[in-house]
Design goal:
Blueprint lengths: L15 H13 L3 E3 L16 H4 L2 E3 L4 H12 L9 H13 L12 H4 L10 E8 L4 E7 L4 E5 L5 E8 L1 E9 L8 E4 L6 E15 L5 E3 L7 E6 L3 E8 L12 E6 L12 H8 L2 E7 L7 E3 L11
Parallel strand pairs: 3-15
Antiparallel strand pairs: 1-2, 3-4, 4-12, 5-11, 6-10, 6-12, 7-9, 7-11, 8-9, 9-14, 13-14
Helix pairs in contact: 3-4
């Protein structure tokens, strides 16, 4: 099965993330699931919350995923197309309203309550809700300190909704998305390294519940990195999904400070770009990091019908 963030083949997992999803399957069988007022690992301001408030029950909307699927089927029209502004607004609003319980998750699951850092490199788990040539709907589970390295989304529009937890997101767009005119060659190693200029779009922490983010083929932070501050769950909609056959494979990058390779030969308008966006960086294409551990599990939330 292809990993959504990286386009690699994976095997079924074991461990805490898988156990969390299995537990999610049990939770999905209940029409009402317990939920604490704040995501696991996120400290509440003010304290003093009563026990009755902490134990309030949240009603899941079993039809939310079905409605989301139907909207995606209408909005995504295949490779080379981008949703219209009103369609983006509609999907964004639907995702903004979605709760963890709508996909069979709960902050009470042990996975999201675990405050201890995993030993070694944490394994990232994903589950596919639905996939077709035009779009895919997936959920990513990141243990604390897990990292999805900086990677791109070629020709894709991606909606990301943080359902549970806290994470740091850093994203870039190419300064010149239509050409390599902003590239330089570095001789810092025995082999020349091709670097391409990018501008920082996002570099911040996010805690659920928060607004849905949207990236486009050339704007909105098409290259991004996720770092889990606490155990996290994210629902991603990718239109169209990764496809090696259709030249939408995932590419990984490392970012290098702009000043390390800034020269007088660079385009004359880079100073204005730097003032406008606050930060520039050179991105260098790299192989998929060996330390990246990703695996897949069966989706156990509310089912959807594609009829």
């Amino acid at each position: 099965m292809k990993v959504v963030a990286g386009g690699v083949e994976v095997a079924d997992p074991a461990g805490a993330a898988a156990a969390a999803v299995v537990a999610g399957e049990r939770a999905a069988k209940r029409r009402r699931v317990a939920a604490e007022p704040a995501p696991a690992g996120v400290r509440r301001n003010g304290g003093g919350v009563g026990r009755r408030e902490r134990r309030r029950r949240v009603q899941a909307d079993a039809a939310a995923v079905q409605r989301l699927f139907q909207a995606c089927r209408d909005v995504f029209r295949g490779a080379g197309t981008v949703p219209k502004p009103d369609e983006v607004h509609m999907l964004r609003a639907m995702l903004d309203r979605m709760k963890p319980e709508d996909v069979g998750l709960s902050p009470d699951l042990k996975f999201f309550r675990n405050r201890d850092a995993a030993q070694g490199t944490p394994t990232i788990t994903h589950t596919t809700i639905y996939k077709c040539p035009n779009f895919s709907m997936v959920i990513l589970f990141l243990p604390r300190n897990a990292v999805i390295p900086l990677h791109n989304h070629p020709g894709m529009t991606v909606f990301s909704k943080l359902l549970l937890g806290s994470m740091h997101i850093k994203s870039y767009d190419w300064v010149d998305p239509d050409s390599d005119s902003s590239s330089v060659s570095s001789s810092s190693s025995s082999d020349d390294e091709q670097l391409r200029l990018a501008k920082l779009v996002v570099d911040d922490d996010f805690t659920a519940p928060c607004d849905t983010s949207v990236l486009y083929p050339t704007t909105g932070g098409n290259m991004h990195r996720f770092t889990a501050i606490t155990p996290c769950a994210i629902i991603d909609i990718l239109g169209p999904p990764y496809s090696i056959e259709e030249d939408r494979d995932c590419t990984y990058y490392t970012d290098i400070p702009y000043t390390l390779h800034s020269t007088a030969d660079n385009p004359s308008d880079l100073n204005n770009i730097e003032q406008d966006h606050g930060c520039l960086a050179w991105l260098k294409e790299i192989d998929m990091p060996r330390e990246l551990k990703m695996c897949s599990v069966h989706y156990g939330g509310p089912p959807i019908s594609d009829k």
